[in-house]
Design a protein that fits this description.
With 462 residues, the protein is an all-alpha fold. It contains 17 helices and no strands. Helix 2 crosses helix 13, helix 7 packs across helix 14 and helix 9 packs antiparallel against helix 13. The longest helix is centred in the N-terminal third of the chain and has 35 residues. It is globular and about 60 Å long. The termini are close together.
């Protein structure tokens, strides 16, 4: 059936290496910092407070569970990325294994994931930015500080800082990946230094009594928090979107994926343990800057100011990488004919998908300005969990259909590891709210309509 037609892997790789395409400028260090840049942001600086309310002092266990789900999926991603170094991430992998309809749907899903992730982080960025400038006696009119309904009992119209940071980073991305990578690397080094500063200072103020009871809400609380803080690990998969701009992708992509995930897991577990050891978890209710709150609670106000700055830089890099991943997914789908061709045209000077970059930046900048953070977070999680499930299944299929395919990195423990990834992801999805499933179903239904009404007939494989 035409909806299950697949692309030829060898032809895809050959096409990606032709002159005139995206420029290969990224090395392994760039990729690790890109992954850390995408992961360490809202998850550690904002969602740790929400997760603590759900899991209590057992929040580090929630991070470990979420990291295991990501780790198994990351091994599957690493095999694909080293074998099929083509832009598009899991969309491209599914096109080669599960067929065009599945590829379209997961590409449609990834648009939701990356787009809303950049919007959600922009909202968190806005909160820390406003906290920082308030220390200098500055502030914005209340109506411009948050989305409508985001602050109970307060009339707000528009989140102006969230929109402005989205547009600013869109402009940076449109000028070229080399320049964007340099900016990302600088900001990542600074924000990791800030996280290490929090660990060094905060560890002295831990009160073990705050860790009792350790699991006040039982296993349901731990897994519920894991489903929520799973958002904190979203980003390592964005590294695979850079496949066509990486030098020696068969070697460097697995290093970037697994290296960034390992570093971030350690940081999350240590930070969440120290944070809940300083502040009783109940005090995080309604707090959108929990890490700096912990330092203020400990009387380390000067360090709290550095944390606010680190959070701002940290979330800036997350937005940058998520916008980047979104534009490369759209670029790949447009190049295959599933989206309008204009979205895959490259700027003659900068070599970037200029038009697609600005469409994404403006659209999801407006989403960040008018949609509250809690609504965005769960939608992102369910989209990402679905993507991780599919990439794990695709590894099993490709092992059977193309056993001869050269694989610079092989996922260990097949079929156990991919099946564990599927099991973890499906389990975490079951803890998400019914309204999240409903919204996700509506988004996928819209995707089906667009596929049969537009994309299927215009596909280059048609």
């Amino acid at each position: 059936m035409s909806i299950f037609r697949t692309k030829d892997l060898d032809a895809m790789v050959a096409a990606s290496r032709r002159p005139g395409g995206l420029q290969r400028v990224l090395g392994p260090f760039d990729l690790i910092l890109m992954g850390i840049g995408a992961i360490v942001g809202t998850g550690i600086f904002v969602l740790t407070g929400t997760g603590a309310l759900t899991a209590g002092p057992a929040l580090p266990l929630s991070f470990v569970i979420a990291a295991m789900a990501c780790g198994f999926a990351a091994l599957c991603y690493a095999e694909f990325a080293s074998s099929v170094p083509v832009a598009g991430s899991i969309y491209t992998y599914c096109y080669a294994t599960l067929g065009e309809l599945v590829a379209w749907m997961i590409g449609w899903d990834l648009m939701l994931e990356y787009g809303l992730a950049s919007s959600a982080v922009a909202v968190g960025w806005s909160g820390y930015f406003q906290s920082l400038i308030s220390g200098f006696g500055l502030g914005l009119p209340t109506v411009l500080t948050a989305a409508p309904g985001a602050l109970p009992g307060v009339a707000t119209w528009f989140n102006l800082p969230a929109l402005l940071i989205m547009l600013g980073l869109t402009g940076m991305l449109s000028l070229g990946m080399r320049e964007s990578a340099r900016l990302n690397n600088i900001m990542v080094v600074i924000k990791v230094a800030v996280v290490l500063l929090f660990i060094a200072v905060g560890a002295r103020h831990v009160q073990p009594a705050n860790w009792q009871p350790f699991m006040p809400y039982g296993h349901d609380g731990v897994f519920g928090a894991a489903a929520l803080v799973f958002f904190a690990f979203i980003g390592f998969d964005a590294v695979t979107s850079a496949a066509e701009e990486v030098k020696r992708p068969e070697r460097n992509l697995p290093i970037g994926i697994l290296g960034s995930l390992a570093v971030c897991t350690v940081l999350y577990v240590v930070v969440s343990a120290i944070m809940t050891g300083i502040v009783p978890y109940q005090k995080f209710l309604g707090v959108d800057h929990p890490v700096s709150l912990a330092l203020q609670y400990a009387g380390e106000n000067w360090v709290a100011g550095f944390v606010d700055l680190g959070a701002i830089l940290g979330m800036t890099t997350v937005i940058l990488v998520m916008l980047y991943g979104q534009t490369r997914i759209i670029f790949a789908m447009s190049r295959d004919g599933l989206l309008p061709q204009r979205l895959s045209t490259l700027h003659p000077k900068h070599g970037t998908p200029y038009f697609a970059t600005w469409v994404v930046g403006i659209l999801f900048g407006l989403v960040a300005a008018v949609v509250p953070l809690n609504v965005l977070t769960e939608l992102i999680n369910i989209g990402t969990l679905a993507a991780f499930t599919l990439v794990s299944i695709a590894v099993l299929i490709l092992r059977r259909t193309r056993p001869d395919l050269p694989r610079a990195f092989r996922c260990p423990g097949v079929p156990a590891v991919p099946l564990l990834a599927v099991g973890f992801c499906v389990t975490l999805m079951s803890y998400l709210q019914a309204t999240t499933w409903l919204a996700f179903g509506v988004w996928l239904a819209i995707g089906l309509v667009l596929y049969f009404g537009y994309a299927r007939s215009r596909s280059k494989l048609n």
